[in-house]
């Protein structure tokens, strides 16, 4: 019997392997937990319990306790329904014998008083105002050291201005701090879709994703009184208990909210204006001191598309070599991102690294289990995700092998220092061609999302490898504070000749530290050019470029177009023949658009044309025209 | 998402036509009926006992058709038959059953829709309220003489003495010129107490107890009067002839391109053309960037006012008899627009354009016509409006334990809609359910039948709301308790001392709602009776407050029936006070059933 179950479990594990990046699997394996038929685990919250059990809260309103979730002896987990009937739970913690969870309109405490393993007390800790708009989700709580809990409230959208996030009740677009006895205290605002939440070393962290006023996803540490950039919640800052004093009017005096009407008096949906430079979020900071900048941007499409849980690896090595670092989930991309943070001038900043792809569904909530493996709670209903399963729970287990990765990326006064998990092959690490650095930023605007703008390719002028081969310090020319600095180091190999598992990092350089400058480094060879491939592509793409047209004369194959789709992050939301976050390319092809029209739609998407899809497509003007045309030609070849 | 829901709502309401007034069967006297026996009379008011079999009490007056008949004496001559005869018919009436009584509505005097005191019955049969009664074949052996009785989908029958409503859409049988039946009579729909209990049911012949064992074009309405006391009021009907509008020489042309106006279409020649019997966008053989033009005649059977309802994804423009029926207008698939035009009898010109330029929009084209005497008919092939696969519903049913479920809940307050955002619905295996508003500490609705449709919440992103799946009785979303300055002070919203505390479950799983108010700790629990006939609500107050009152009901009418027993509204439900001393007071033109609260009050809501 046991053997049968073992086989069953190993089959499950095996079957999920196919979808995964096999290179990653050598180091971290995904184990899909078997779930009884009829149990739908659309996970909105996840936590561990002192008993060693894992508990899940679901969007369907149930709380499940999973006994034997680790399946160490090969037997199946046991699911016990602890509570049910709650209103779309999106967070769960366990404290002093009770669960706490955020429902749409309430922070609730659930207790089993009679000892039958099921909640019989559904206590209202705090009744939260809500208008009843579908988008008013509530996330949390996260436990704070003083015993209080922090929850966050999603915004509603306008009626006519359906694209504009609005706060119809106090607390929407806010983080709220709630004491154990139910006292609700506004904490911080400027949030749009604050599904990403985390309590890291006693501090509250939050992540948002692309949307109106949000150029891209990011994570940030949030203090009381911070303003995170979205104006909706400012509606309540004149309330006496508001820790944020900035008013909507004050903000709009500094930036145009783009509330314009057409000749018939109807509001016009603001679109990105390519020819306008616009403003960057950090530039607002001097006018708006309450503004808190992202600690780490998670570039939209590349790293993630919808930021979810933020957790810290406190496993002391049980989860591998990244103790102390953060892991951030992403519902849409169904992946995990690893984040290294450091404090410069009193503010957090750091680097985001791709970590693990291939989860079966949207990775919404994570928690470390008692053995240092990570449980990942999943859902994609209504939101779409790269993982095609509706819902479920998976466990990410370190295989014990150390992957060759950039472990950390730190800012230095004149560049960056990268630490590797294993000693590098010094020849590859000393080769300047193996380091490409590019910086860019996003616009801060009322538009949904932002293209990457103000791109600059930087020169690595010198480098120095530490004696132990674990660190490489780079002297970089042209650092820009607040910009995202992308480092590509694909060519670097370890002493065994293995390339980096992920050769990509994005460092958000809010502050350039002071300190010792690099000395006795190897200078860049004088004749070595800086690789500026993307710029070259831009050049190629002038509309009257004859070559570009030649290229598109024949429809490319998927293999030919795939690098472009990857490079421009299209595959984050689209697949050839399956609906994901966005429609399948086949379905786009069915619309019978001309190639030119598709290019136009890449630059200026019309989300209203796809009312069945929850997530808007952001304008992608950064895609060179030649590339866009090639993609369009390929799309139309799918008809 | 929201758009989808709106689409579906509009689609569902398409058939509910309110364009033409219904006729009312006068109940000032019995002149609308064939001569009758003494068991039928016109009265002005009626109550019935919920305990005593066949016990009703009437008041003099008009407006109510009452039958008093001792149970046990049968005979078709006890039935009452209208002078009015009908074929296709929409009927809408209220009825009251006495305890243990049984009656029926015979359409055309031949097909019986059963009325019965089915209060509390768990699994309704064809002989229960709303059932389509069985047919009968004497030649068959004992035990199999009855056949083709059809039980209602749900039992939503109310208590004796309460007004219940039934809406029946009936289609008479059709005959050819030789008098041979060519299609069966049909129940298009029956809605009992607001719940759809039958749809599109063919009646292969008269049911048992038919007036005459044949089928006809026209027959009277007949109400059964030989199985006990029953009463009827508000007997409204709309009678249809069997005429219809028909196309003649309907030609179509298909144009390909991206059009904005009819002028754009007329600039080019059609790619294909032909003749069709009914409208259908499918002739386009394209999903988008096409236009179809229909030109022909439509035969109008009688001169008069006609209402046309168009459904389309994209644009249409319609001219009938040279009149602009619909100007160029755009609709989302599933939306509709309506117009009424005066038409002469005979063949009139018909010209319709349908075009579509939005790739994302599902193509759809439908046109319905109706008049005071013509039932709403489709002038298109059915597949021309079926645009997408409907969503599979997600239903929530109670199990052996109560199901407690939080969602947004949309209700009506007078003419206005309201979304209750902290609603808790409780479903019971006894098939009676309620919703509680944590913001107002109010038990604001009760219903019987199924529990909840959670599709609006759980399909796709959802809008966070669920819908009751049964016959709903609104109790008003106002607080039960108030501290009043005086016994006559007006009822008000809860003040800032109110704080909801959630709920606790007992061993059986029933929730007790807890809240603080005016320095008091209040517990509020409602438990269904085992027979599914009533809720017993118990309020326990810890702490003391002078002038604490409970308002159990507010309505235009509240009448005391016996000690502790009250009938609320127009015989809408009963309240029986078990612990407490209530009184009826008047406030702002309404009656209120109010009682002072000490430590505890208990009462039942019976319906």
Number of domains of chain B: 3
User: What characterizes the major β-sheet of chain B?
Assistant: 8 strands, antiparallel
CATH hierarchy: architecture of the largest domain in chain A: 6 Propeller
Largest interface: A-B, 41 and 40 residues
- Main sheet specs of chain A: 12 strands, antiparallel
Oligomer: heterodimer
| Proportion of strand residues of chain A | 25-35%
Percentage of helical residues of chain A?
Answer: 10-25%
Q: What's the β-strand tally of chain A? A: 34
Quickly count the helices of chain A. Answer: 11
Secondary structure class of chain B reads: mainly beta
- Ends distance of chain A: 50 Å
Any idea what the radius of gyration of chain B is? Answer: 28 Å
Task: Report the average pLDDT across residues of chain B.
Answer: 93
- Residue-averaged pLDDT of chain A: 91
Q: In angstroms, what is the radius of gyration of chain A? A: 24 Å
- How many β-strand stretches of chain B? 44
Structural class of chain A: alpha+beta
The CATH class label of the largest domain in chain A is Mainly Beta
**Which architecture name of the largest domain in chain B does CATH use?**
Sandwich
Looking at this protein, list some descriptive labels.
heterodimer; A: 639 residues; alpha+beta; Neuraminidase; Immunoglobulin-like; 3 domains; twelve-stranded antiparallel beta sheet; 11 helices; 13% helix; globular; disordered N terminus; B: 607 residues; mainly beta; Jelly Rolls; Beta-galactosidase, Chain A, domain 5; eight-stranded antiparallel beta sheet; 3 helices; 3% helix
Please characterize this protein's 3D structure.
The complex is a heterodimer of chains A (639) and B (607). Chain A has 11 helices and 34 strands. With 639 residues, chain A is an alpha+beta fold. Chain A has 3 domains: 2-302, Neuraminidase; 406-531, Immunoglobulin-like; 537-636, Cytochrome c-like domain (Cytochrome Bc1 Complex, Chain D, domain 2). Chain B has 607 residues and is mainly beta. In chain B, the strands form 9 sheets. In chain B, strands 1, 2, 3, 5, 10, 13, 14 and 16 form an 8-stranded antiparallel sheet that branches. The A-B interface holds A 60-61, 84-88, 103-106, 108-109, 113-114, 119-124, 127, 130-132, 134, 136, 182, 381-383, 590-593, 608-612, 614 and B 1-4, 287-289, 358-360, 403-408, 419, 421-422, 424, 438-439, 457-458, 460-465, 499-507, 511.
